[in-house]
Write a structure and sequence with these properties.
This protein has 479 residues and is α+β, with helices and mostly antiparallel strands. The chain is 37% helix and 21% strand. It has 3 domains: 4-237, no CATH class; 243-306, no CATH class; 421-467, no CATH class. The chain has 14 helices and 16 strands.
Length: 479
């Protein structure tokens, strides 16, 4: 929940959450809980396909993700940073990216021990720059104890302090606590000492920070809901109608399948006879009087009716909606198919071409996390800003000396979605046999050996070849 007005009064600051974005965030919350507003139209059922979309993107984006921290000089900083990144980011990378995709963005923030990831219903922006990057925000935390509801609000921002004519940028965090008898009411302000947050200082200042101690990780999707908002939107935000119709189509097929068993159409006299003689009848449609419901004429007391399923028509409709939803969310046409992929692709090159749109979308998401700096110096992105936060907090908390500040280099890697292992291995084998690639390099790249092991193997093979008087220097001899 967000106590927007209360937070603005408490900190005397304006927050930026438009009614349009507020409504959208509430809608995404309904979707996450499996309760879209159109449930009645689909007979109370949903396939929650938005979860499938977010999960598929999260899987592709984080495939083989790896982050390594190395020290520039001696010190404990790189090792401590690696532990925090492993525990608070890599361990749950897929879940965190799923949340980012689903909510249009998530906030990464220091929580006292590591990094926590907050959904947009847990913070309010108070300042952002011309590029839409959030520079100040209020963060909320909640808990319940003894039938009381507690709320913590933290306001993070930069302030300018002037002394002796010299201006200094100071990072300032103000923390307030509130207690209420009602979950939907923030209540009145209470001292932090009366809450579980008693160890937190009400006011915190830090100097020499270049960036905030938080980072909003925003989806690379144009915000058509509110183009002036610093918040992002999920890729399926523009598919509301298609997702609704998909639910209706799937529910219709489900109801048809449920009611597809043969039915007995019986006369009232048959029911009476069965009741008098303790006979249990199967499911049936009652025929009052002695009428043939099917043909509208008098008929036999018992008739059988077999409904006709429209499976083919229904599947075509479902696949139609899946195709539109997938394409609007950045996938290649035919990525989602109700009865499986039917397109046969002959070569790896064609695979790369047919899935290029999907791969390009994945790369746009990965660029949010890690990409080359536009000035050609190093790399930037959310992962690097998270590393900066960890580095800064380790110094601020005294876990490492001040001299260790900035003592790290960060390296990120992901799986190459367009890479074909068999085709690349065949090409590298040809290069190795023709002398354009070192033979040990082939073994390292495609057989998983260390460089030391591979060099030793190649040397043994060369020596054995010479001992046997063989002159073939190719990696595996005749092919």
């Amino acid at each position: 929940m967000l106590f927007k007005t209360d937070a603005e009064k408490a900190f005397k600051v304006e927050t930026y959450l438009s009614p349009e974005m507020d409504a959208a965030i509430k809608l995404w919350g309904q979707l996450e809980s499996g309760k879209p507003p159109w449930l009645k139209e689909s007979d109370g059922r949903t396939v929650a396909f938005w979860n499938t979309i977010a999960e598929e993107w999260a899987k592709l984006i984080t495939q083989n993700i790896d982050i390594k921290v190395q020290g520039i000089r001696s010190g404990e900083m790189p090792e401590k940073m690696q532990e925090i990144i492993d525990k608070y980011f890599l361990q749950n990378a897929r879940d965190n990216i799923h949340a980012m995709v689903f909510w249009g963005g998530i906030m990464a923030k220091w929580n006292g021990e590591g990094i926590e990831f907050l959904k947009p219903n847990m913070f309010l922006p108070t300042e952002y720059d011309s590029s839409g990057e959030i520079k100040a925000a209020i963060f909320f935390s909640y808990y319940q104890a003894s039938k009381k509801f507690y709320t913590k609000a933290e306001w993070h921002r930069f302030e300018t302090e002037t002394k002796d004519g010299v201006s200094t940028k100071i990072y300032h965090v103000s923390t307030k606590a509130f207690r209420s008898d009602n979950q939907d009411d923030i209540g009145r302000e209470v001292p932090l000492s009366e809450t579980k947050w008693k160890d937190i200082e009400p006011e915190f200042w830090a100097e020499n920070l270049e960036k905030p101690l938080f980072r909003y990780i925003k989806c690379p999707v144009y915000n058509f809901i509110d183009s002036d908002s610093p918040l992002g939107i999920p890729c399926f935000a523009n598919c509301k109608e298609e997702l609704r119709w998909l639910d209706i189509a799937m529910s219709t097929l489900g109801k048809e399948t449920k009611n597809s068993s043969p039915m007995l159409i019986v006369d009232q006299s048959v029911i009476m006879y069965a009741n008098q003689n303790g006979i249990e009848l199967p499911e049936f449609v009652e025929n009052v009087g002695n009428l043939d419901i099917v043909n509208g004429t008098a008929g036999s007391p018992v008739e059988q009716w077999q409904p006709t399923l429209q499976i083919t028509t229904r599947k075509e409709g479902i696949n139609f909606y899946l195709s539109i939803i997938g394409f609007k969310c950045g996938f290649d046409p035919g990525y989602f198919v109700f009865d499986g992929q039917t397109i046969q692709v002959a070569t790896a090159t064609q695979v790369r071409v047919t899935q290029k749109r999907t791969a390009d979308t994945v790369l746009s998401y990965r660029d949010v996390l890690d990409k080359p700096n536009t000035n050609g110096d190093g790399r930037v992105g959310a992962i690097h800003d998270i590393a900066y936060i960890i580095n800064a907090m380790l110094v601020i908390n005294g876990d490492v000396p001040l001299t260790d500040n900035g003592n790290y280099e960060l390296f990120c890697s992901f799986a190459d979605l367009l890479k074909n292992e068999e085709e690349d291995a065949a090409m590298d084998l040809q290069l190795a046999n023709q002398g354009y690639m070192a033979k040990f390099r082939f073994l390292v790249l495609h057989r998983g050996y260390t460089e030391e092991e591979a060099r030793k193997m190649v040397q043994e093979a060369v020596e054995e070849s010479r001992a046997n008087g063989q002159g073939d220097s190719r990696l595996f001899g005749e092919e």
